[in-house]
Write a structure and sequence with these properties.
Elements (H helix, E strand, L loop, with lengths): L1 H33 L2 H9 L2 H5 L3 H16 L14 H37 L7 H20 L1 H12 L21 H30 L1
Length: 214
Amino acid sequence: MENLKLSSIYLSEWGQRLSVLLTMLTGAMLVTINFTPLYGLFLWGQNLGMLVGENNVALWDDYHHLLAYLECPWVRSLEMNLPSSYAALRHYQDVKGWFLVTWIVFIISLPITVRYLRKLKQQKRIWTLQRFIQITITILMGLFVLMSLNFNRFFITFHQLFFPGKTNWLFDPQNDPMILALPELFFATAFGLCLLLLAGQMYLLYFLGKRELR
């Protein structure tokens, strides 16, 4: 009976740590998704509108309309100046589903994480997260290396994992010029920013734990 109780406490502890990871990961994702100045740097820096036969202001509007459709449950249709094929619209629907899942996970895990970290801070036990943080940082470094070596392969694998059995994410620029307005380097930078934000949060916890041990 005592062993069962200890096991339950241990699992509960790791469950709360998982909640911390989910909150930080989804939070980093949502900040990256909504950090529209990142796209602005590529839009005006590379004059992306010229690639799709639009001016940059119109393309900027299209990008915001796309974000609104992907993130807002009440936005049921996508309206852009650029045309979209049926396959592309289906892919946008799939992405919208994942974006909503991200918001749901963030909203559910956030209060659990706040309560757990507050308890650890009061008990001066943030240092107990160090092993968990080290494992997470190691995984993030591995992902960063894979991205750096061959982002195209990484991006394809990412789509195969999250959109199994589907190929509607393979856009034809002739039918879906929006793909030309979303260069690979933009996605690579966004992925890098997301990993950086997550690593930054982990390092903050690690620093707070180190300070407790002094």
